[in-house]
User: Which sequence fits this backbone?
């Protein structure tokens, strides 16, 4: 099926009223969680994972995807108006976005963020359409060794890109694999680490773990300190950037888009790293780097374009290889699995309506987001005024309801609380939850492919280095492991942002 | 025999949060190794159910030892410093409330438990005006109940209100 035919089939799916409604709900909730500090796309997606069960797979996945890229748009609003990032990928937007707002230029800052995001999101979709089918054709040749090595690479790169000691990040990945393997062994049907609990025979649910580590833990951490928010009081008008603003921002948007898309595809990469990398590049190529931090529009346009392009690019490894490159995509993989679907190279041939429907819905979602984030900015400003002391009990309630609804079991609520406390302590002790969650999702696939590879090779580990793709992935993984030992790279790694 | 300076170093080491973090994961890693061995390692050409656990456990132990080694060489924040100046009591109360909520959830039901949780959080833990708290708690609890049961067809425990809600 060629791209044009695929896309027209996709629009036929995405334009169905039910899918349009789910797309709108997704981007609306995405913008909302992006705007609200203290709840990010990971929490919102895991919260709404059970809700997708009541609809068709297309509708559910369209909504989940909408939450992700919608949150990238919404996050900038809080960064610019309050100087608190709505979600992690908008941290860097605070620097120049809020400075612009203090100078009375909140309108152009919000405008360039929304328009830059739209341009980058659209580019990422076009690139997704062009790259995904080609990569899927290559991926058909992948066997268990390639999948195993690719997952090892993903976990290693994510650990490398995590903040703090790499040993801690790898440790979290190992813990995630162990947690992912709890339950009945798929080959021997033997219960593993179930401690005699029937609830654990099917393994620990993804939703309680994610809600605990990201939702409850975030609330506990926020409760430690009193959150003070001061929304810019001046009237926000003139959202359309001036010609001078466009001239300053256009190349930043182009660079941010390309960089973000590339970093989004990489295993372990993602929107947060893309936004920081874009900011660093813009500052470096600028003739007046001293303006950065004091209201340079390129400092808003580049990172916002980068985080949206990365959000689009991240769909490629998931849709073509079935391997999520980051935690958000791991949740989307969870949504696919819940609906009995396996994303991967065969998705495009077996369920072209689903693949192209998701792609087409992202075009529509991007257009919806432009409307939500430009004319309706006043509404989000009102949302921002909601005090955290009212917000956090509501978030907790949604966490509990979401977790209970995911498995209809109170046991899951306790699992969420335990992981909430664990996540809170992990933050305190400097352990990141993102490698744990990604490894939790990849763990069963990793073990399965390892065992299959060893059975295929009669126990010979050379199978992993005898096959070129597998060997290349392992070489890159080893490079990521030893890179922090090089002083220059260690210094760069120390400056990396936190990526969930 | 160590003098006072050795004792001080030892005490400082015992307060090191990095060290305790590493020891915790070392313990967990050791357990995973034991559990993997107990499940059966199988053979290389036919790995058993404990094969992955065993090797991941060994990796965990090695990484934990690296964290411990780093803690001993470079030091780290003391346990007390991690919570200094924080509202840790509020955090503890919220955790206890959530556990209590879980215990009462099925028997007492979603509506009474959620109303109570939200009101306690908004009246006592991080207070807001009591009328606002009452309004927010009531609207959100009944709103979520209606959305879940009527729209999404997801049943939440009715508990003591079983007779009224069915």
Assistant:
């Amino acid at each position: 099926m060629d791209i044009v035919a695929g896309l027209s089939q996709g629009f036929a799916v995405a334009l169905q009223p039910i899918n349009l409604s789910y797309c709108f709900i997704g981007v609306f909730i995405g913008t909302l969680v992006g705007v609200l500090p203290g709840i990010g796309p990971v929490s919102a997606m895991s919260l709404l994972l059970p809700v997708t069960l009541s609809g068709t797979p297309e509708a559910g996945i369209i909504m989940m995807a909408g939450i992700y890229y919608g949150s990238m748009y919404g996050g900038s609003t809080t960064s610019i108006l309050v100087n608190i990032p709505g979600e992690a990928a908008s941290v860097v937007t605070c620097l120049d976005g809020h400075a612009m707002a203090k100078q009375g230029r909140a309108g152009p800052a919000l405008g360039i963020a929304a328009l830059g995001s739209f341009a980058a999101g659209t580019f990422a979709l076009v690139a997704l359409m062009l790259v995904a089918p080609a990569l899927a054709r290559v991926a058909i040749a992948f066997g268990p060794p390639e999948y195993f090595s690719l997952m090892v690479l993903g976990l290693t790169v994510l650990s490398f890109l995590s903040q703090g000691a790499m040993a801690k990040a790898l440790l979290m990945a190992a813990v995630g694999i162990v947690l992912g393997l709890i339950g009945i062994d798929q080959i021997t049907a033997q219960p593993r680490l179930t401690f005699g609990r029937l609830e654990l025979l099917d393994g620990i649910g993804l939703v309680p773990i994610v809600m605990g580590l990201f939702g409850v833990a975030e609330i506990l951490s926020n409760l430690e300190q009193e959150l003070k928010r001061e929304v810019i009081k001046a009237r926000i008008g003139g959202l359309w950037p001036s010609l001078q603003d466009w001239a300053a921002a256009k190349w930043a948007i182009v660079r941010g888009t390309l960089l973000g898309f590339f970093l989004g595809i990489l295993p372990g990469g993602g929107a947060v790293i893309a936004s920081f990398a874009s900011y660093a590049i813009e500052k470096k190529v600028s003739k007046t780097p001293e303006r950065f931090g004091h209201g340079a529009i390129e400092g808003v346009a580049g990172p916002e374009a980068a985080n949206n392009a990365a959000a689009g690019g991240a769909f490629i490894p998931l849709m073509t290889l079935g391997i999520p490159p980051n935690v958000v995509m791991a949740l989307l993989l969870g949504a696919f699995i819940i609906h009995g679907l396996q994303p991967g190279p065969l998705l495009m041939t077996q369920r072209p309506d689903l693949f192209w429907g998701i792609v087409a819905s992202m075009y529509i979602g991007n257009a919806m987001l432009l409307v939500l984030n430009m004319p309706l900015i006043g509404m989000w400003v009102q949302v921002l005024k909601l005090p955290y002391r009212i917000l956090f009990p509501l978030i907790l309630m949604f966490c509990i309801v979401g977790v209970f609804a995911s498995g209809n079991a109170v046991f899951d609520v306790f699992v969420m609380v335990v992981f909430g406390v664990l996540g809170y302590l992990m933050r305190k002790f400097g352990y990141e939850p993102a490698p744990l969650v990604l490894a939790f999702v990849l763990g069963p696939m990793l073990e399965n492919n390892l065992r299959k590879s060893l059975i295929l090779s009669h126990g010979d580990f050379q199978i992993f280095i005898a096959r070129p793709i597998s060997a290349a992935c392992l070489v890159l993984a080893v490079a990521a492991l030893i890179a922090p030992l090089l002083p220059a790279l260690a210094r760069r790694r120390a400056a990396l942002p936190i990526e969930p | 025999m160590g003098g006072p300076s050795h004792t001080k170093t030892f005490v400082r080491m015992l307060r090191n949060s990095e060290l305790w973090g590493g020891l915790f994961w070392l313990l967990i890693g050791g357990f995973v190794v034991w559990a993997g061995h107990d499940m059966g390692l199988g053979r290389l050409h036919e790995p058993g159910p404990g094969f992955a656990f065993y090797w991941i456990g060994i990796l965990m132990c090695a990484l934990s030892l690296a964290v411990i080694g780093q803690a001993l060489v470079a030091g780290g924040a003391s346990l007390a410093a991690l919570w200094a100046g924080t509202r840790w009591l509020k955090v503890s109360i919220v955790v206890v409330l959530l556990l209590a909520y879980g215990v009462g959830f099925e028997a007492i039901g979603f509506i009474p438990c959620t109303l109570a949780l939200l009101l306690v959080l908004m009246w006592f833990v991080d207070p807001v005006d009591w009328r606002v708290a009452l309004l927010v708690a009531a609207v959100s609890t009944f709103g979520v109940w209606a959305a879940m049961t009527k729209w999404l067809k997801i049943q939440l425990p009715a508990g003591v209100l079983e007779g009224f809600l069915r």
User: Anything to note?
Assistant: DSSP finds 23 helices and two strands in chain A. Residues 26 and 63 of chain A are 4 Å apart (CA to CA).
